[in-house]
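Lecture notes, structural biology module. Today: joint structure prediction for complexes of two components.
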Amino acid sequence: MTYSQEQEQLRETLRAFLARFGDDKEVWGRLTGELGLTALAIDERYGGFGATLAEVGIALEETGRALLAAPYLPTVATAAALGEAAADELPGIAAGTTVATLAVAEPGTAWRLDALATTARESGGGWRLDGVKEYVLDGQHADLLAVVAEGGLFLVRAEETRRTGHSTLDQTRPQARVVFDGAPGVRVGDGRAAAHAVDLHLLALAAESVGVARASLEATAAHLLTRTQFGVPLATFQALRHRVADLAVKVEAATSTVWYALRADPDELPVAAPLAKVVATEAAYAVTAESIQLHGGIGFTWEHDAHRYFKRATANRLLFGDPVTLRRLVGARAGI
Amino acid sequence: MDGDLAAFRAEVRDWLAAHLTGEFAPLVGAGGPGREHELTELRVAWERELGAAGWIGLGWPVADGGRGADIARQVVFFEEYARAGGPGRLSHIGEYLLAPTLVAYGTPEQRRRFLPPIARAQELWCQGYSEPEAGSDLASVRTTAVRDGDTWRITGQKVWTSLAHIAQWCFVLARTDPSASRHRGLSYLLVPMDQPGIEVRPIVQLTGTSEFNEVFFDGAVTAAANIVGAPGDGWRVAIGTLGFERGVATLGQQVGFARELDAVIAAARADGRLADPVHYDRLVDAWIGLRVLRYHALRTLGESAGANASVAKLLWANWHQRLGELAVDEPGAMLAEGEPYALSDAQRLFLFTRADTIYGGSNEIQRGIVADALLGKVGRR
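The predicted structure, tokenised, for the full assembly:
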């Protein structure tokens, strides 16, 4: 059995909630306040519910399905990465008053951890950070930045940085460029902790992409069942049925891969997370691209949702490493 | 992993180490898809060795002569068996297709008569489904069975029958009521192979070897009692046979896949292709693909065959075929190993995997099942 009864309940509750409030301006306040969604996997000592990554994965699938435009993914992935190392911040994250995000990529070198130009130097008992971070998810709305720099993982308050919000291809998720100019920071982990934080973001993006892919597949199936041409529903044409079947195979494979990675032993994560990210984002990209084609002309219009799913899938595919880069990473970590 | 399971794993491992040796040592890595022609007699003896030790029917109910092992233990057995290089199985058609069919649809007498010889590998089985005019469209079988006193008399032709040349019995889907519409006139009969009315001819495949056969029935007989379900109920029983859970066997199959993948990667490393970024990307993708097969099997373990079983078949068949293509992506693959048509492991993998997307329900049939689950069965032809 894939999910427990409690997990299925969480999924149903969240799906109904997002169907009702997903486009609400106050959705973040409702999600964190009424549902306590950011508190899910935070330890009970810090105001959380003490659930596991498996439950966070379900929440991410559902927020992906709804194309939620709120900083859920970076906040919970960063919280999971920080854990006890940022105990003071966890109650704020659990309550939804602190938005957190992870700053890794840099201009020119993207997410390459072996080419970081951002530096951290010790200064008067603390640290000062200098550098430029790019593609920071929800960076302009974040209160707290976890920063991967030469020498480890650092926490920086957002107001200590200069932030420029970008206009993004995927309009459902903002990104920012963040400049650190001697910004004061706290060191919360070494290089391994930094790599682990990246892995958790890969896993979160993978889980979200499963939701994106499944929603897009279901919308496509619904269209084929209702759209009539040549006097019959499109769903009667075998050429289209087999294409949808191939997409369903990708979605099921991605679901299984993410399901496993969310339950993997911590020492398996360095392989399981980038692997899941490759499989799930490639599936989401394939499904959402085919969805536009299978919807025909209506799928090319601004008013239809097909392009919003396609654009989220495109961004998810590129964030924290494109599939070619990540396959190389998986290969290296697997000893190939 | 709980302690009992670890103990069970040790038991399997120790038994295999103690028995897959001596006279059976040549069997390591022999047989299986693409190599079914190898060392047949010795493999039959090996099946009896397995049966005598109680390894056949591991997951069957104890009342039926099995050990009632749970899924985790069955997985362990398959994994250890594959890891030890255990030879391709010959009793699996009886063990995994006929036995659950008899448990679900057979009479107590049939279970008593047929299950023990399967568990001891004294009777091997083959499956008489496909015919020259009934491939993917199984319901159009033309082989007929007519009641003649207290026997059924069977006439017709079956094809793609694995292991028919060594099996003692065949379960045959035959038409018993020519006047009934397609699915309704069929019956599921158990037919002894050693009789004058049956002739088995091997089919030479594009590999140059034979694992499949044609089986000709010319008035072959079986006792009237050897029918599973009622006359005319054969379609339901036959589909039931195809529907039993296969996730456990799949995980064992993947251990063999891993060995093949390791060999392909090692060959690419040895001749320098691994350093080519495009080739490297394809090989890592294959490595990832095998992980995906495993995760899908683990997630769907214990489910009876449905759309996810078709998903699994499409995933592994396509994956295996791509691996075969990777294996021969070098010029040496153009030359056979010797006369008359001896193939390397890579060439055999490459050629045999063309069948993976055809047998056991072709990719097209599997896509149809997956599409049915998503789109319903509206006008699907």
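Point to remember: Chain A is about 50% helix and 15% strand.
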